[in-house]
């Protein structure tokens, strides 16, 4: 190649004649990490992104971990201190007190006294005239217990002269007279109770004994009337009349009652009655006679002598 040919080629390169004819490389488009593909195939795009995120945030993660460990350590230390204080201040004295109580001997006598029924309350015995050379003696007895029935034997002792021994009972929180009729001696007298037994009422059958009794003890006195021995109808006896009503919903087979005669609130006489087939809401006319001299009655009080906890005493009406 001669000089002129080389010079022309050099001129063409400078002007771009030859360069424009050369092929141009394609522009590389940046797709970021989302389109990254590992040529080796060992790491996915997601794994690569996580690795990049971890590298950028490893210091923050380290600080968070250190902060959590500090808070956890502080919590455990505070909890340990509080728990130790609780044990020393509360649990140790309590355990010592329990240990002392376990070593003490229980006062079973005191416990038995608390659970045992109370004794019957017995009033003074009163002897009153009942007729020609006849006297009646009575003593009011109270059962202070709420859940015990008192059973006993009794007799009256008049200075060594003893009456026939009989049996009686007093229901919970009941007061009624214990009476001996037809004594020959009107001087003094003492009620003697023997063989007293307190029977506890079954709480499974009778949860509230007092309410149970109140639902059955519904006898009412009505139309009271008194006529002295001087009255034409009286002849040689004082007349005491009244109506007794069974206001309960129960029928009684043969209930027994003690009738107390009063004058100005003071007991002046006693009588006893039995009524056969006393039905619910039925009213019975009672006519009593007394041969006591100088007797005046302005009121009568009726004491039922019925054991409501014995189902043989009564029955419920047919519905």
What does this structure look like?
The chain is of the alpha+beta class and 319 residues long. The chain has 3 domains: 30-104; 118-205, Immunoglobulin-like (Sandwich); 215-319, Sandwich (Immunoglobulin-like). 27% of the residues lie in helices and 34% in strands. The chain has 4 helices and 16 strands. It has helices at 3-15, 45-103, 108-115, 209-214, and strands spanning 121-122, 126-131, 134-142, 148-158, 161-162, 166-170, 175-183, 190-200, 219-227, 238-246, 251-252, 256-263, 266-274, 283-290, 299-304, 314-315. Strands 1, 2, 3 and 7 form a 4-stranded antiparallel β-sheet that branches. A hairpin with a 2-residue loop joins strand 4 (148-158) and strand 5. The radius of gyration is 54 Å and the shape is elongated. It starts with a helix and ends with a strand.
Topology:
Layout: H1 3-15, H2 45-103, H3 108-115, E1 121-122, E2 126-131, E3 134-142, E4 148-158, E5 161-162, E6 166-170, E7 175-183, E8 190-200, H4 209-214, E9 219-227, E10 238-246, E11 251-252, E12 256-263, E13 266-274, E14 283-290, E15 299-304, E16 314-315
Antiparallel strand pairs: 1-3, 2-3, 3-7, 4-5, 4-6, 4-8, 9-10, 10-14, 11-16, 12-13, 12-15
